[in-house]
Input
Amino acid sequence: MSARTRGQVRVVGTGLLGTSIGLGLSSLAVDVVLDDVSPSTLALAVDYGAGRRSAEGDAPAVVVVAVPPDVVAHVVRAELERFPDALVTDVASVKAGPLAALRAAGAPIERYLGSHPMAGRERGGPIAARADLFLGRPWVLAPHADSTSEQAAVLEALALDLGAVPVRLPAERHDDAVAIVSHAPQLVSSLLAARLVDAPDHATDLAGQGLRDTTRIAGSDPALWVQILSANASRILPVLSDLRDDLDAVLAALADPAAAGAQRSLADVLAAGNDGVARIPGKHGVDLRTTTLTVLVDDRPGQIARLLTEIGELGVNLEDMRLEHSPGAPIGIVELAVTPEVAGGLEADLQHRGWRVA
Output
C-alpha cells in the first residue's frame, strides 16, 4: 500500500507515541527522521526501525512533536522556527494550553495545527511502541482561526496512513471531551486500585475480570499523568465534583439501605450506568446490543484458536471477546459478545461440539 503522506516527516520525541508513529510511517516507505533529547531513547527507536537520525539538509514537510505535555509549546515553537516551510503538529492530550502559549509567545501559529491520537498503552517508551497502535482509533485535529483546511487534510492523510480515524474538533471542545472520557477515568481507576494496597491477600485472591477492567489503566506512568491532569485541571474538576456528589448519594443510601428511597437511589445509579455504557461506541457505533455467552476452555495451548475457528465455521461474527482465568483452576473463561439473534443457536451449536457453556 502506498502512503498518502507526502514528503519527509520529522518526529521529535521517541517515546511510545513518537516511535509508534515512526514505525507505522516507515512501514509505508515514508522518510521518517527521528530526534530526541535522550540519546539512548533515540538509539532504541532507530534500532527498532522507526526512522533514521536527523542529517544535514533534512527538509521535513511535517513535524510531529511527541514530547511530555509541560514542554510541548516550547518544542513546537522551536520546530516552527527551525523549519519555516514545515507544518508542525503535536500529539499532546491537551490542546487549548499549547495553542494559547504559542499565541502568547508570538509563534507563527499559521503553520501549527495541534492533534491528538486517542491511543496509548499502560507502558511507555520505544520498547512498547507498535506500528498498529492507532488502528481504528480516533485522531483528533484541532483547527484554529489561523489554520487552514489544506493543513488539516495533510494531517488527515498522515492519520489515515497510520490506520486512525481523523476527527476535527476545536481545542476547547477537545479538552472538555477528554476530561470526561480519559482524564477523569484515569483518576477514578487509580483511586480504586489504591484501595488494594492495604487489602488482605484473601481479598485480592478473589479478584476477577471486573476488577481488572476497572483498574487496568491504573498502571499508567504517574509522572506523565501528573502533567496531563495539571494541564487540564479546570475541566477535570467539575467532572469529579459531579462524581463526588453522586458518590455522596450512594454513601447515604448504603448508610441506611432500609430507609425510604435508598433502594431507588441505588437502582437509579446502576441504571444510569447502563445508559452511559450504551453510549460508548462499539465497532458498529452505539446502537448495537449484544448478548454474552461464557465458554469454559481448558488452559492449554490451542484451545482459544480452536474455539474461534469453530465459531467461524458456524458463520457467527463476534462483536467482542474477553478472556480471564479462574483462580486456582486449570480453565480459561471466554466471554463472547454476539448479537441476540444468533446467541441461542451459537450456544446450542457449541454445546453440541463439546464446549462447556456456562
Notes: The chain has a mean pLDDT of 92. The longest strand covers residues 291-298. Residues 171-194 form the longest helix (24 residues).
